[in-house]
Amino acid sequence: MNFDVVVIGAGAAGLFCAAQAGQRGLRVLLIDHSDRVAEKIRISGGGRCNFTNRDLDVRAPQKHFVSENPNFCRSALSRYTPQQFIELMDRHGIAHHEKHKGQLFCDGPSQQIIDMLLAECHAGNVERWQPCGVKRLAFEAGNDTQAGCYRLETDRGTVDAAQVVVATGGLSIPQLGASDFGYRVAQQFGLRLVAPRPALVPLTFAGQAWAPYASLAGLALPVQIETGSKKTRMHFMEDLLFTHRGLSGPAVLQISSYWQEGTPLTIDFAPGVEVSEALSAAKARSRKRIANELAMLVPSRLADAWVGEDPALQRPINEATDRALTQLAERIARWQITPDGTEGYKKAEVTAGGVDTRDLSSQTLESKQPGLYFIGEVVDVTGWLGGYNFQWAWASAHACAMAL
Ligand code: FDA
């Protein structure tokens, strides 16, 4: 069987690319080894799919993305904008609303976006084979009378195509069909990889080191969190959540994409508050216990835990030494702790790293191997939390489809 294009992976990027290529008149086959389409869209955003972000600055979109080559994503993201995806949603009558920091969600279930993408594929006469695995992918060189082509041996037979788009995503959430297929294909054709790692993921701490904080599980509070050296420093102001094994919540998921193993995080539990000054002032006017005064600045569970660690702090604030209060303020405003790892791909929203952008065109997503393209999460481009990863899926799919 012959097609102009085979797209492997019917997730966000694969569906969108297949639909647009089909609507441009190409004969497109879309293959996925799962029996369901776009499972990650379905579960995303708590079932309401945070499908894009209005705050993405199309003149400098790289600000919201992590990559060895931060500028790579600019071309695709500036040529297919959040507004264009919003217009597509509007044409399909899918109601949506804005939440925190430009994040756009469906009013109804995420399935509406899947249905929209399937309708777009239908409009492009895309043929879809699911479930269907790809056992082998090879490039068959041409001769004087015939051009070369890709030959795919699939569970449903052999297929020839002039071009192949790999949209098989990353390694996160293996139970939803994630595989390393894309990385293996890249290596097969001599393309480089940036080592994949879990990102947008909760961070864990060694049992002993975490024991004093495990009782705080369930506590959520706004923080400023930072990591990196002076040159690479990255920080976020978001909510943090204590868990039994470590830290989670948007602040931690965001910083996890920048965190390097063995390095500490610095957390300010009272951002915008001069904790040292507030405690000194309390010392001058109050006879309450330190934990009670601290509870005016941070949640009382946190205040109790921090004060409980030091016998010198278990007393009325007017009896505390200035040194003890300064040290306490430092531990509230600049708490340093070093994670021992992450919760891994089981819990990671995305995979950072992937196909090295040095071997891809930023205009078309075509690789150094002519006719072979990589789009979406399989590429070394990882967005912040908040709809940026779907926007990369749409934009990279669009750039590729326009070039096929
Ligand atoms: P995606 O993973 O969507 O699709 C890959 C497809 O390839 C899958 O259908 C898979 O079955 C298929 N496949 C894999 N291996 C294959 C093989 N060997 N053969 C054939 N097919 C194969 N992002 C965001 O912007 N907003 C949000 O709200 C969320 N929320 C969210 C929640 C959760 C729980 C997760 C895990 C992730 C998110 N994300 C997100 C991230 C977002 O889901 C992700 O970045 C995109 O789905 C990536 O789109 P892709 O199409 O590249 O991969």
TrEMBL record:
Key words of the record: FAD, Flavoprotein
Domain of life of the source: Bacteria
Limits of the RsdA/BaiN/AoA(So)-like Rossmann fold-like domain: 4-402
InterPro entries xrefs: BaiN-like, BaiN-like_dom_sf, FAD/NAD-bd_sf, RsdA/BaiN/AoA(So)-like_dom, RsdA/BaiN/AoA(So)_Rossmann
SUPFAM superfamilies from the UniProt entry: FAD/NAD(P)-binding domain (SSF51905), HI0933 insert domain-like (SSF160996)
This protein's record includes keyword Nuclease: no
One Pfam family, short name: HI0933_like
Cofactor(s) of this protein: FAD
RsdA/BaiN/AoA(So)-like insert domain ranges (all copies): 197-350
Protein name: Rossmann fold flavoprotein
Source organism per UniProt: Variovorax ginsengisoli
Phylogenetic lineage: Bacteria, Pseudomonadati, Pseudomonadota, Betaproteobacteria, Burkholderiales
